[in-house]
Fold this protein.
Amino acid sequence: MNRILFFLTLFIHLSVFSNELQLVSISDGVIYYQGDLSPELNDKARQIYEESIVKPEMLSINSRGGDVYLGLELAEWVFDNKLDIEVTQYCFSSCANYVFPAGRIKYLHNEALVGFHGGATSDSFDTSDLYSMYGDLNDEERKKKISELVKDMETYLHDFKVVESNFYNKINVNQAVTILGEGEGYDSYRNDENYVGWYYIPEDFVKLGIKNVIVVSPPWKLKQYSKHSKVFLVKVD
């Protein structure tokens, strides 16, 4: 089973956040997590927590995401330890899907972006950029490799759908948060290469079960990080 394909489909096109500093630290009782989700950073966050005599009550995170299981692992830990979450700049992909909604209280700075672009229940994934992975192969061999990866992904997703569903049931959040931007009304954005995902206004999070979202120094306003890596608004009825 090839885990890298699903990782790429949730991580691709995010070069606007490239070359992130990879660091976990603690200051004034807050654990700071900066960078792509990784086993090392997850372990460091847990280590800092366990070694603290006075337990930290907040995880401040800025991350473009990463492997979905790492996102779920961190999210479960946040939820089980009743940690607050703070996003000062951006929380994208697996960070948005899992880590952000797992927080007890979610502190969202007034230009911070929580961005989504798919989950385990997505109907399809954009694999166009995967062709570059096999640039040294001819067209027929490249298509064969992509087909094999897609088949692996389908098997992988079959198992992960159950894991993701159990997680959202545990935290009492609507799993649709990861796929609402894939509705028909947003086709024009999804077909525009300048858009990499979507966002919700803070007031709409509660409609999806993501409660206790507090905007720091309101009002909140969207900050697009790049004209070639934009997000579009999804409204929740």
Q: What stands out?
A: DSSP finds seven helices and ten strands in the chain. The CA atoms of residues 146 and 223 lie 35 Å apart. Residues 1-13 have pLDDT under 50 and may be disordered.
